[in-house]
Amino acid sequence: MKKTLLAAALLAGFAGAASAQSSVTLYGVLDGGLRYSSVSLANGTGVTNFGGAYGVQSGNRWGMKGVESLGNGNNAMFQIESGFDMGNGAGQQGGRLFGRASWVGLQNAAWGDVRLGRMTNLTSDWMVGGLDPFAAGFGQLNMGNAFTSGNTVRLDNVLMYRTPVMSGFQAGLGYSFATGLTSNGGTTGYGFATSNNSRQITAGLKYANGPFYAAATYEKAYAAESTAMNGQSINNWNIGGSYDLKVVKIGVAYGQTRDGFWAGSGAGGTGATLATTPSGSSNALVFAPSVGYNSYIVGATIPVNAVSRVLLSWTMIAPNTNMKDAYNAQNQSSFNLGYTYDFTKRTNLYTYVGQTQNYATVDTAKSTIVGVGIRHQF
């Protein structure tokens, strides 16, 4: 009996020691509400919708992430994250089990971390995630509506390296061997020949020090040689910064995109899709040598009190001459207003209104959305 008790105590001790060196966290978001939306043209044609809207402020999801100490300052880490439609329970991201994130990596405070798998690109993480008052949420209100390379672009088969934070600076570089994104050259899949897959470089540099934040990113997508877009590539760079004055946090950014665009995953964030593909295709990568535009945002977050804040932004896509001539594309301008109220640290109420002129760069097209919802995080 004493041996049994001793063995149990030793096992409990070893288990405690192991758990002290590793951790796994289960987390998730439930977000739902009501929304009115309309898209119309000056000639009177249009469509409206009123009903449930889900994943507006934050996409509905559940996931797990963890870290384990390997000794000598080295850690193994992972994240898997599944997106779903709260309105009907269906999986999102094309029905993938872990479509939002699926990666494993190694980390050390001295040299940084390296990750392999499916993850968002650095423009989505460091530019939009760091500067946008709407934090990549709220559909057409978010910064990705104009900066399409950061419209929550998720890439497959990414090898990503991020440096440690040094005096506020951090750099990152990633390469996707096969993005898994569809394009106007067709779905490339995963061909044995690397060149027969769409590939992408994602790079970034950010700086955070007290109230000041700045970021610069670069994205380059290559068309698969096995498609009609063989030899084509899309190029994009962005730069921006924000400063928190306590009474208001102001952010600005500018970007250039040439020879196509990323459709991304945010509602309404399709950039020039209607101008370049009148059939309404929802291609995630559009290679088009005649397409080029500049992107702008000026945004502000205004704390009302300790539990509520007002969100404001103006964004614009300004097509270049080639795009205007080829598609009669016009400047797309969006005016956005939101308000959030925190019931607790995990549950908040939100309401929002946004209007986009020359929506998707189509002349006289107007898109308006108004909504309210509640978000719970666990």
Automatic annotation (TrEMBL):
In the UniProt record, the signal sequence range is 1-20
This protein's GO cellular component annotations are: cell outer membrane; pore complex
For this UniProt record, the keywords arranged alphabetically read as follows: Cell outer membrane, Ion transport, Membrane, Porin, Signal, Transmembrane, Transmembrane beta strand, Transport
Which Pfam family is one of this chain's hits?
Porin_4
Domain of life the protein comes from: Bacteria
Q: Main site of residence?
A: membrane
Enumerate the subcellular locations listed in this protein's record, separating them with semicolons.
Cell outer membrane
Specify whether Transport is a keyword of the entry.
Answer: yes
Q: How does it sit in the membrane?
A: Multi-pass membrane protein
Stretches assigned to the Porin domain: 7-358
GO BP, one annotated term: monoatomic ion transmembrane transport
Q: Which GO terms describe its molecular function?
A: porin activity
Q: How does it assemble?
A: Homotrimer.
How is this protein named in the record? Porin
What species is given as this protein's source? Zwartia hollandica
